[in-house]
Design goal:
The complex is a heterodimer of chains A (514) and B (484).
Chain A (H helix, E strand, L loop, with lengths): L5 H9 L30 E7 L12 E4 L2 E4 L21 H5 L6 E7 L24 H9 L15 H9 L8 E4 L34 H9 L8 H22 L2 H5 L4 H22 L43 H17 L5 E5 L10 H6 L8 H6 L6 E2 H23 L2 E2 L2 E2 L4 E7 L22 E6 L10 E3 L5 H11 L6 E2 L2 E2 L8
Parallel strand pairs in A: 1-6, 1-10, 4-12, 5-6
Antiparallel strand pairs in A: 2-3, 2-7, 4-11, 8-9, 10-11, 13-14
Chain B lengths: L1 H4 L29 H20 L1 H7 L10 H16 L5 H8 L2 H5 L9 H13 L2 H4 L6 E2 L5 E3 L2 H12 L6 H8 L6 H12 L2 H15 L8 H21 L6 H4 L2 E5 H7 L8 E5 L12 H5 L2 E2 L2 E2 L1 H12 L25 H4 L1 H5 L1 H7 L3 H5 L13 E2 L2 E5 L3 E3 L6 E3 H11 L2 H15 L8 H13 L4 H10 L5 E3 L6
Antiparallel strand pairs in B: 1-2, 2-11, 3-4, 5-6, 7-8, 9-10
Helix pairs in contact in B: 2-7, 4-5, 4-7, 9-10, 11-25, 12-13, 23-24
The chains are: A alpha/beta (514), B mainly alpha (484).
């Protein structure tokens, strides 16, 4: 019998205390959970990683590329391999997964498409679950929420998959969700994100948007600031003092609620109510007992100060990027830390739902710094790389290399979960981790006639990782034009969501479950 | 934060959502609290307060007394009454002060691991303020008047309005003294305060800031050296026309000379100024005023060149205050326009003129931009398209609806002035900036009256600002209902 502290025992018996870690001592010999009468199995985690780019370059077929000034045709760069099932060829974007021996831990779902009306571009003519005929904005709502878009704006018209799962798990953990974004500014001089920075919605419209945390350090402090070694009495006492004083501060802020809210107009009232609600929720989170750092649940290394926020690109993002330090804020390091945090937040059961928007929709992050780590030099931003690239680099391989970089973060997270023992298996067995990107590569959505365009909702792919809920990963599933929301519905089902709809889309990808 | 605590690390840049420009960065309908924001704010407040109490010089600059010990209530009370009132931009009620003093219990706590320390109380009060709506938002309560839905602001609320309008920061000691004396609810009191404030450099910075947001050059896609020179050039013109040699605001658009240093003079191909920096007369007759500046000409570029369409949109929306419908969805605006086979830019834009579905709108935009085509995206004069001597730029332009033709920035400014756009549109834009939201129908007559006053006063911005803050309206607010 492993020794168990009185504090842990009390918490375990309490059942309702938030922030309960999965303790080895509470599992039976088969790795099933012994305590917590309401739950018969391990908590299931749902994470969604997003890349703000398409799958191929404008006017380049899937085997056509130009790299370092040389044009060539070569297969193997488009994400979906030619073979289906297992044993497929590893394509350029998937290489980080193969490098970490994760090929058996995710499935590729390919050849998906969002419907659109090729003969009528009016908002009223958009089919159910379909895209308004304007990229980029038109693809946002059907992709993330399964609900049709009727205008060009980057706004979902219904809740997104992660928020449906978060609602399902509400109250089970200290943090309802963990919504993160690695790309900080928009980087295109003279413009701003204007909605491109959201992939998480609690409901329809701009009021449903969930603001992402973009500071790795702040995310770290919010999740793990209260973790101190249980046997360090001094650290415990200082923590106790700090938490009490911080709560008193928040409490004092809250006392002015009535005075202010009752005396302003309705618009300011809503804003102030929200401010005070968030202050109160923060106070509750600070009051929640943090889990002991026990077993696999350990305080992650302090990420330190955030990488500096970079300035805008010096020009329009094609050929005129000359320095790796503009249009870039250390997104690579930011995304890595955020994956570390998602991993440990899941392992410590601080939250069960996470989203990481690695890059924003229509991302203008400079590709230079990242391409240099891969042995190339793309003098373009991510968005331009898909269109005009720079004069020497464009087309399928250039786009796929940047997709590979995005997927390297996905691979990093899968690997960490897989290498975290949990019960009889590992944490990835109890997780479903989705990788999605913004667009496919095919018929242009706007004109419905140009071929091989990045502004396309055809030929879309997703990666569904983990083994939660009966997922049987390891395959390439080529659908016959499934809606991408169906891949999300499948992932939601794996995470325990009983329904089979997301917005206006119904049905799962059955092959994901064997 | 800098003015209140002497903290110039700009700590909020780490987490604040990036501004959205409509074109101003203060649109209230786009600013909402969220879990991410409040979480980050609490962490930042802790960082800032910890840094403050660790920095004895800065700490002593805001704590007005030397405490006798951790439990010196009088000293903490004095700090609260002075510093918190400054942050809240109003005096505190006695029960509010007492509530803050409750935090002193942490300073005196008998704790084996945490030493008693007076400045723990200061730290916690600073944290509270930095998360407090009274500090974070400009909340105007006011008192009901006989008119339905109209509320009279108190002196401190008026002081805050004045200060953020003219200086973009919180009231200074003198303005707070004016408020305490009750003079800001009178027209003459506001005029006196505003006159003093307009003589301060902070007013210059604020006017530069307004123009940069309005005309779209807060950030420019050019090298830091060039941007800095451009910004200096435009700033000097704004300072001169509004503050240093007060004159008709039209001077901003018609000035026949410009402020350059040797670097910028060489860049433009102008004679160098005497002494390395100064005013140099234009020898190019097509140049004149702010529309000839690199700030304006470098903005609104696209596809690595000037964009006649984008420049046309800029003139129509920012200087004529007109709306332009978005392009139809079937147009992919990420694609450069027109026929890729055409060599010269004017020909590449022919589709905009010739396709019936395009011309209806583009005829109101592109001809404006083509009238500025002799000036590249770095503000330099050019005879022909970049690297294409055969593509000689015609450089003639036209405003829509028969409002006149022009060649180059100077004549464009003349056409805009003649047609009354500058005087009405700058008022519209400034009022939107002052409100932090779009002007609504009820307020439109106010703007129209301001335009009248502006015209009657010889387009003197300084007089107009004084008239604006002196008006009764400035000391009142209307109950606002807009949907988020």
């Amino acid at each position: 019998m492993t020794k168990i502290s009185r504090r842990t025992l009390l918490r375990g018996l309490g059942g309702a205390v938030v922030g309960l870690p999965i303790l080895e001592v509470m599992l039976d010999s088969h790795g099933e959970r012994l305590v917590e009468a309401s739950a018969g199995s391990m908590p299931t985690r749902y994470a969604l990683l997003f890349a703000g780019q398409a799958l191929g370059g404008d006017n380049y077929e899937q085997n056509a590329s130009r790299i370092a000034g040389t044009s060539f045709t070569e297969d193997g760069h488009f994400i979906a391999p030619p073979q289906q099932g297992t044993g497929y060829d590893i394509t350029t974007p998937l290489q980080p997964l193969a490098d970490l021996a994760l090929v058996g831990d995710y499935s590729i779902v390919s050849n998906m498409r969002i419907p659109f009306n090729a003969t009528n571009a009016d908002g009223g003519a958009v089919p159910s679950g379909g895209a308004f005929r304007d990229f980029h904005g038109g693809g946002c709502s059907p992709l993330l929420s399964g609900t049709r878009s009727t205008a060009a704006s980057f706004t979902c018209n219904g809740p997104t998959s992660d928020q449906i799962i978060a609602q399902m798990c509400a109250g089970e953990t200290t943090h309802r969700d963990l919504v993160l974004r690695a790309q900080v500014p928009f980087y295109l001089t003279g413009y701003d994100h204007s909605g491109r920075q959201y992939i998480s919605y609690t409901g329809a419209g701009s009021s449903g948007r969930v603001e992402a945390q973009t500071s790795p350090r702040n995310a770290y402090m919010a999740l793990f600031g209260s973790f101190v070694p249980p046997d360090d009495l001094e650290a415990q006492a200082i923590l106790d003092f700090n938490l009490r004083s911080r709560r008193s501060v928040l409490d004092l802020v809250g006392t002015s609620r009535q005075r202010l809210v009752n005396n302003v107009g309705s618009f300011d009232q809503q804003r102030l109510e929200r401010h005070f609600d968030e202050i109160r929720d923060l106070e509750l989170r600070l009051a929640a007992t943090p889990p002991d750092a026990t077993g696999e649940c350990q305080k992650p290394a302090d990420p330190g100060q955030d990488p500096a926020v970079g300035g805008d690109n010096p020009g329009s993002g094609s050929d005129d990027i000359t320095s790796p330090s503009t249009g870039y804020s250390g997104e690579h390091e930011r995304a890595r830390v955020m994956c570390d945090l998602i991993h440990m937040a899941f392992v410590c059961d601080l939250t069960r739902v996470a989203t990481l928007q690695i890059t924003a929709f229509q991302s203008h992050m400079s590709a230079l710094a990242v391409s240099q780590t891969l042995g190339y030099a793309f003098y373009a931003d991510l968005h331009e790389l898909g269109h005009n690239g720079d004069v020497n680099n464009r087309g399928q391989k250039a786009v796929s290399l940047m997709l590979q970089w995005h997927i390297s973060h996905y691979a990093y997270l899968l690997d960490k979960l897989k290498n975290t023992p949990e019960g009889a298996g590992n944490a990835l067995d109890n997780s479903v981790i989705v990788f999605m990107n913004e667009a496919g590569h095919g018929l242009q959505l706007n004109d419905a006639s140009s071929l091989w365009q990045t502004h396309s909702v055809q030929n879309m792919c997703m990666l569904i990782g983990g083994r939660a809920g009966g997922l049987t990963p390891g395959r390439h599933i080529r659908t016959s034009g499934a809606h991408p929301a169906q891949a999300l519905i499948s992932a939601m089902r794996a995470a325990g969501n009983p329904g089979d709809t997301l917005g206006e889309v119904t049905g799962i990808i059955p092959e994901l479950f064997g | 934060m800098r003015d209140l605590l002497g903290d110039d690390t700009r700590p909020a840049t780490r987490f604040l959502i990036s501004d959205q420009y409509t074109p101003y960065d203060n649109d209230i309908s786009l600013q909402a609290p969220s879990e991410a924001l409040i979480t980050s704010l609490e962490i930042m407040a802790g960082d800032v307060a910890d840094r403050l109490v660790a920095d004895v010089a800065r700490r002593d600059a805001i704590v007005p007394c030397t405490p006798t010990g951790p439990g010196d209530t009088d000293c903490l009370r004095q700090f609260t009454e002075e510093w918190v009132a400054r942050a809240f931009r109003r005096p505190l009620a006695p029960d509010e002060v007492d509530a803050f003093l409750g935090l002193q219990a942490f300073a005196t706590e008998d704790n084996a691991y945490v030493a008693a320390d007076f400045y723990t109380g200061v730290n916690l009060i600073v944290r509270t303020v930095l998360q407090h709506p009274d500090f974070l938002y400009r909340i105007e309560l006011g008192e009901r008047t006989d008119s339905d839905g109209v509320l009279a602001l108190n002196d401190y609320e008026v002081a805050t309005r004045l200060s953020y309008l003219l200086w973009a920061t919180l009231p200074d000691d003198a303005l707070r003294a004016d408020a305490a004396a009750g003079s800001l609810t009178t027209a003459q009191g506001r005029r006196a305060a505003a006159e003093r404030m307009l003589d301060d450099d902070r007013a210059k910075l604020q006017m530069r800031r307004f123009h940069a947001l309005w005309l779209g050059h807060r950030i420019l896609p050019q090298s830091a050296q060039l941007v800095s020179a451009f910004v200096q050039e435009t700033g000097a013109l704004i300072d001169r026309v509004i503050f240093d040699e007060p004159q008709s605001y039209y001077g901003l658009f018609t000035m026949r000379e410009t402020y350059v240093d040797n670097f910028l003079a060489d860049h433009y191909g102008m004679p160098r100024p005497a002494g390395g920096a100064g005013w140099v007369a234009y020898d190019d007759p097509m140049r004149g005023g702010i529309l000839s500046h690199g700030t304006v000409l470098a903005a609104f570029a696209k596809f690595a060149d000037t964009s006649p369409t984008q420049r046309g949109i800029m003139i129509r929306t920012r200087l004529m205050c007109e709306e332009i419908a978005p392009p139809p969805p079937t147009v992919d605006t990420d694609d450069a326009p027109g026929d890729a086979e055409a060599v010269c830019k004017f020909e590449r834009y022919s589709q905009h003129r010739e396709a019936p579905g395009c011309a209806a709108c583009h005829d109101g935009m592109d001809p404006i931009g083509f009238g500025l085509e002799n000036y590249d995206m770095q503000g330099r004069y050019r005879e022909h398209d970049e690297g294409l001597p055969e593509c000689v730029i015609d450089g003639s332009g036209a405003l829509p609806s028969g409002l006149g033709t022009f060649s180059g920035p100077s004549q464009l400014a003349d056409r805009l002035i003649e047609n009354g756009y500058v005087e009405s549109c700058v008022m519209q834009q400034f009022y939107q900036y002052a409100l932090g939201r779009e002007v609504d129908d009820i307020e439109q007559p106010v703007v129209d009256q301001l335009v009248e006053d502006f015209r009657a006063g010889g387009h003197d911005i300084r007089q107009l600002l004084l008239g604006f803050v002196t008006s009764e309206r400035f000391a009142h607010r209307r109950e606002l209902r807009i949907s988020p």
